[in-house]
Structures are given as structure tokens and as C-alpha cells.
Amino acid sequence: MAGIVKKLRVGVIGCGRISVMHLGSIKRLEQAELIACCDIIRERAEETAKQYGVKSYVDYKEMIDKENLDAVHICLPHYLHSTVACYAFKKGVNVLTEKPMDVDLESAEKAVETAKECGVTFGVIMQCRYNNSAKLVKAAYENGKLGKIISARSVLTWARPDEYYNSSDWKGTWDKEGGGVVIDQAIHSIDLVNWIINSEVEKVSCSMANRGHSCVNVEDSAEGLITYKNGVKYGFYCMNNYGTDEPIEIRLYCENAKVVFGYDDAVITYNDGTVEQTHQADTEVMPEGGKDYWGFQHIRQIEQFYKACLKQEKLEISGEEALKTHKLICEIYRVGKKNFSK
Q1: Are strands 201-209 and 221-228 parallel, antiparallel or unpaired?
Q2: What is the pLDDT of residues 267-295, one digit of tens each?
Q3: Residue 13: which of 52, 50, 51, 56 has the closest Cα?
Q4: CA–CA gap between residue 80 and residue 40 (Å, rounded)
């Protein structure tokens, strides 16, 4: 019948903590139908499948091979992202993976190239770009209202006690997670600044340390200075030894204004005294098991990815686009590991 829009057949690979943001979004969006889910822990896969009324698998290859899927969501430990994505690409399946792209640069670049060769859509979750605060600041910079960005800074002080790492067999490991506070927590604030500045990185200076965790060897603290080819200097500080998850703070010192923003709020104070601001109202429903620090914007990015798969829109956060921040994260680690202390 005319007017009927095809629904994408979708599967989710990995039924851990972050998967609830994907599962809940899929069920709410009209562009897709959740067909199956997969997890190597059979009980977890079956429980999730029962909750959402779909089939369960313990082998992602079997799920992809049997279910004639149009797209899969990857919610796995970091080191598996590219491997699983490339299998899906070669089967003609579109992929939306959680951040980061992988634990190294080579694997991420291979995934981007494989997706291109196979002619499929490859998206990477960077949901914080869809926050009202980030969109306001990005627009103000792109339309020239801020003028030149002179310098930037970001601060993240969160809490990740030993229990957080002890409850996982891959968190807090170099080989499976790729690091600690930088690649897991601070990646979003670093991505926001990198995305807004939108210039090639010229130099990274960084130091890292594990100051408060006896159960892991990765960094729980990092600070550094990133210099861009357009002249912007960006200083960052992050650590997860604080007593609670404080709101992140990003500041931009610009030619025409000063900017202060985080995940929920943004205030732009222009040199002429005028102020532009926004606040993220909690109008969205957080899926059961979701965390406040993940925000509410997974559904926005997932819907945009689906529209790109259906050729209705151009994909906004592609593998190529996400690679810009992944390259920076990898360079932070390359330099930071040389100055690592415990």
C-alpha cells in the first residue's frame, strides 16, 4: 500500500547496563522493530528477550545470519566493537555502536573502511551532542556569534569506587576497556569540545595517574593541554575519585563571548552584556535501569541513525565523524602513558 514506510528489522548485541537505553528507544521509535537480542550470558539474553517479547541468542553471528536484520546495536565491551561491527558490515547489516569505537586506532579505522567497502551505514553513539546545551553552543559558534574561540577547558569529577570495577570482568583494563576515566567517562566532554572547535589537533600534552584505585592499573586521573591548528588551546581535567558525580563543566573563552555549559545547561554571555541560555527539561522518560549521567538523548541519535538507514536523512555521527574524537583519545593515551604514575 502507498504510504507505508518499511520498518527496519533490528537486533541488539549485548544486554548489559547501557543496552536499556537502546532497547527502550527501539521500542518507542516507529522506524524500527526489535527482532532479537544477544548476550553470551544465556540467562541475561533470555531475560531481556522475555521482557521485550523477542528472540534471544548467545552467538551474535547466529543472530545476524538467521534473522535477516537491517541493523544491529552494539552494546559490548570496548575491545569487541570493531570486530563485531565488521562481521555485520560484511553481511550487509547497518551498525550503531556505543562509544568508544574500540580500544585502539587501527581497529577503528578498519571498521570505517570496511563499512565503506560494504556500502552500509555506520553510526557511533555520541548522544551528548544532542543535548540542548551543546546544540546551542555549536550553533552560536558556527553562525559566527561567538567569534573566534581562543581557549577552552573541561572539568569532570565523578565517582567510580573499587566496587564499580570489581563488578566487571573488563572495566578498568587496558586490553578490554582501553583505559579508565578518559575513555569511559571524560570521552563525552572531550568529544563535545573537539566537535565544537572542529579543527585538526596539532599537539597533545598529557599526564595520567592512578591515585585512588588499588584494584585496577588504568588511570583514574588525567589532565592535559590540546593545541589545535586553528590556534585554540584546550585544557582538560578529569578524575573519578570524587564522592559523587558532579555535573561536568565546559568553558569557552571566545572573541565575542564567554560560554559555560554542561550536559543540562548552557549560558552564553556576550561582550555587549546580552545573555543566551538554555536548560534541558527532564521531559523524556528514562528507561528502567538508565543512569542520569547518560542523559536522555540516546533516542534522538538512534532515530537519526534509522532515518539515515532508510535514506531519509544524511547520517550525522558517522564512523568517519566519530573517528575525529577517537584519534584524539588515542593520542591522549599515547602521550599520557609516557607520564603515568601510580
Answers
A1: antiparallel
A2: 999 999 999 999 987 666 666 666 666 56
A3: 56
A4: 13
